[in-house]
Write a structure and sequence with these properties.
Length: 798
């Protein structure tokens, strides 16, 4: 077993003022157990700000962070005044290494927020989050001035300023602390009237020593949130709600968007006004001094802080939870709740004060299971969902784009298609099929999480077509075993041993040696395998374990995208190019850093593609480099959600390959359910980027993918705006070339006479999107290098 891995900090709460101008009676800073605020400077000094910026910068450089997220906080941070806030913003940006972006925000009660502050925030690119508990009646239960006056009118006036066109880009969202005495529908409606870009609802801070009010009910907080959730669904999910979105994501096996849910390691640290490092502020509700680390910015590095036992405890996943939590069926979504909410004063020496379920345990269980059943009812195998992309969503796709909801609609259709393919394969292994059917009734999310794996469909299609390994039924048992583990079932089940290993799609590979049949016994936190020769292996799901257990590696990226680097699945070799073997630790670090950089570029330069990628691209399969180190990539037609890429030398090149290949993935999903052209037309057409003519599908796929190439180079040109030099000249040359190529190919499509009405709608949408990109004068034409041969519908940009 290896030691714990240091998780670098990517989120920083920087306290700029330790006092507040409100007297909220539910405030964890001033009204709960911790009293450390009394001995701290009211306002942070420039010396502390400068050193904090240096520490964050050196940490970002040491860990190759593509971005850091800093929240200016308090107390009330606006009390620090414009000069200190300006100094903080400028020092933070100055100390970050090249290529590391700063996401800078301020969280405020907003009673002092005015145009002077907003002009400063506009100049320094500081987004603003506001605390507000609903309408005036709800807000005034707790958020009042010390003399009892309401803060609601001042907050509403400040939010109206934020909503003004000049300042709208600064508006980050609203944060509401729950009081179950408030009307949940009235609270939601009041918040939605303020047109926030994001909402979040926070459970009030409480512990087993100081439990939350329950008003005579068993699960009042779940009831309150579920009423909000139902209203939110009825309104068509008008705004993202972080807690609801986190539950949905964790039920699908993805990362959470909040520390209060899921098993993702905490990557946040607090810097107080005196320069001391602290753990999460919520710990102030546990006991006096609970968040303290004993470290400060002058004497200690952030790596030292990351190794603090309290920090490590919040990064240990299932291993850091109580036995009761580890046995819970929703533990992967709940994650034990917020760490601070587990506190109970030890009754005897040696007790672990946080080794408990959350004081909101019953509420979290009811909330998660109800949302699971409410928004993701089971689909029996062979039953197609009643809805696909709407007309408006098809129009998005026709223009070459597709937001998160649109791509999720595509994914739902693909999941159903995989289910129907498996229904055709199922009788080959009656035992595995019976288990899958049973699991589908009991734990449909667990089944869906495995069936959505791209290479499950790739295997099913190969088997039905009589491809290599067509007689092999072992993968069906592996799929059933992986779903059973995800569902937390404890009974024993047989699993095949292939190539000396037990393969568990979406989870990993266990090297047991030999061949034949092993016996697996699962549980929510770990599983055991008895190999054919009698050897026994114990594996914790989320721990690397020894060298025999190879878990699937996942990279968590800003904006809520979690992507698997799939270097284990036996069926991942579905692309034109051979797949890489298991990545070494160094190669994994290089991939992780490159992906973070490429993703930041994509979010900055190609936001119209980013949300769709985050919603639909679940898997990247590392490929071996092409001939002479050439960049190669591919999208397999029967593996929705995956792309194969040989890691290129630069982050911009990786960003280009990601958006380009995911275009093929999207269009392939559309073509599974819609005819865009006459499939009987066997003519070949000129593609400007190739020397050989292409069939209609290849030309359509090329146009669709190369729109993203055009916009990628347009983004690079914008990045070099006004600059000279070889890189800037290359970007302009590439934009001119690909703009011309793609525009001509769209004209060829439209003139082919083989398009269906929907296909013409797509081709015109693509042509209009290309036309909206400013065209540069082309550089002198030279021969475009011939891309490597690929299957139809998988064109490769130069």
């Amino acid at each position: 077993m290896g030691g714990p891995v240091l998780v670098p900090f990517a989120q920083f709460v920087l306290k700029v003022h330790s006092r507040c101008d409100l007297a909220c009676d539910h405030c964890y800073v001033y009204e709960h157990a911790d009293t450390s605020w009394r001995g701290r400077p009211k306002a942070v000094s420039t010396e502390v700000l400068d050193q904090a910026a240096r520490r964050i910068g050196e940490h970002a450089e040491a860990h190759r962070l593509p971005a850091v997220h800093v929240v200016l906080h308090g107390g009330e941070p606006l009390l620090a005044g414009p000069a200190l806030l300006r100094h903080a913003a400028r020092r933070l940006r100055a100390e970050l290494p090249p290529g590391c972006e700063l996401d800078l925000r301020i969280h405020t009660n907003a009673v002092r927020l005015n145009e002077r502050f907003l002009e400063l925030f506009l100049a320094e690119r500081i987004k603003v989050g506001v605390s507000l508990d609903g309408d005036r009646a709800a807000n005034d239960r707790h958020r009042r001035f010390a003399d009892g006056r309401s803060s609601h009118p001042q907050v509403l006036a400040a939010v109206e300023l934020l909503r003004a066109p000049r300042y709208r880009e600064l508006y980050a969202g609203l944060l509401c602390t729950i009081d179950v005495a408030n009307d949940p529908v009235a609270v939601l409606d009041a918040l939605l009237e303020l047109d926030p870009p994001h909402l979040d609802f926070l459970l009030p801070h409480a512990t087993w020593d100081a439990p939350p009010p329950r008003l005579g009910r068993d699960t009042p907080y779940a009831d309150w949130l579920l009423t909000v959730h139902q209203r939110w669904l009825e309104l068509g999910r008008p705004v993202p709600v972080r807690s609801f979105d986190s539950i949905r994501r964790t039920l699908l096996g993805l990362s959470s968007l909040t520390e209060s849910l899921g098993l993702d390691p905490a990557d946040l640290v607090v810097i107080e006004t005196d320069g001391s490092f602290e753990q999460a502020d919520s710990l102030k509700t546990a006991f006096d001094g609970a968040p303290a680390t004993g470290f400060d910015i002058f004497a200690n590095s952030l790596d030292e802080v990351a190794r603090h036992p309290g920090m490590m405890a919040r990064q240990s996943g299932l291993a850091g939870l109580s036995a009761q939590c580890r046995a819970c069926p929703v533990v992967r979504s709940c994650g034990g709740g917020l760490y601070a909410h587990r506190w109970r004063t030890p009754e005897r020496r040696g007790d672990a004060g946080f080794d408990n379920p959350s004081v909101f345990c019953g509420d979290l269980m009811r909330l998660i299971t109800t949302i699971r059943d409410r928004v993701a009812p089971a689909l029996p195998p062979g039953v197609r969902p009643g809805t696909g992309p709407t007309g408006e969503q098809l129009d998005q796709l026709a223009r070459g784009y597709g937001d998160a909801a649109t791509v999720r609609a595509l994914a739902a259709g693909q999941l159903d298609l995989t289910r129907r393919l498996l229904a055709a394969v199922g009788p080959a292994d009656a035992r595995a099929w019976q288990l899958l059917t049973l699991l589908d009734a009991e734990a449909p999310q667990a089944v869906d999480a495995v069936l959505a794996h791209p290479y499950v469909r790739a295997w099913a299609v190969s088997r039905l077509r009589g491809g290599p390994g067509a007689e092999e039924s072992a993968p069906l048992a592996e799929i059933a075993a992986a779903a059973s583990l995800r569902a937390g079932r404890r009974e024993e089940l047989p699993v095949p041993v292939r190539g000396g290993a037990v393969h568990l799609p979406t989870l990993g590979r266990l090297l047991v040696g030999g061949s034949g049949e092993a016996v697996l016994r699962g549980g929510p936190a770990s599983f055991a395998v008895r190999a054919p020769g009698g050897a026994r292996f114990e594996v914790a799901h989320d721990q690397p374990g020894d060298e025999r257990w190879l878990p699937v590696r996942r990279v968590e990226l800003p904006g809520g995208w979690t992507v698997a680097l799939e270097d284990l699945d036996p069926h991942r070799d579905s692309h034109q190019w051979p797949a890489e073997q298991r990545l070494t630790a160094g190669a994994l670090a290089d991939w992780t850093g490159a992906l973070r950089e490429a993703w930041e570029l994509t979010r900055r330069d190609l936001p119209q593609y980013a949300d769709g990628i985050a919603a639909g691209l679940s898997t990247i399969t590392p490929l071996r480099p092409g001939p002479n180190g050439r960049d190669v990539s591919a999208a397999a037609r029967q593996a929705f959600g995956a792309v194969g890429i040989a890691r290129p030398a630069t982050a911009p090149a990786l960003a280009l390959l990601l958006v380009h290949e995911f275009q093929h993935v999207k269009l392939g999903a559309v073509l599974d359910f819609h005819d865009l052209f006459d499939r009987g037309d066997r003519r070949l057409f000129e593609a400007p980027w190739r020397e050989d003519p292409r069939p209609l599908e290849g030309l359509f796929q090329g146009c669709y993918a190369h729109l993203a190439v055009v916009e990628h180079w347009a983004g690079r040109v914008r990045a070099y705006d006004g600059l000279a030099g070889e890189a800037a000249g290359h970007a302009r040359e590439q934009l001119a070339r690909w703009h011309g190529h793609t525009a001509r190919a769209c004209e060829t499509l439209l003139g082919s006479g083989a398009l269906t009405p929907l296909g013409e709608r797509f081709a015109r949408g693509l042509a209009e999107s290309v036309a909206r990109v400013p065209e540069l004068e082309p550089a002198p034409e030279r021969l475009v290098p011939e891309p490597e041969r690929r299957p139809a519908g998988a064109e490769q940009p130069v």
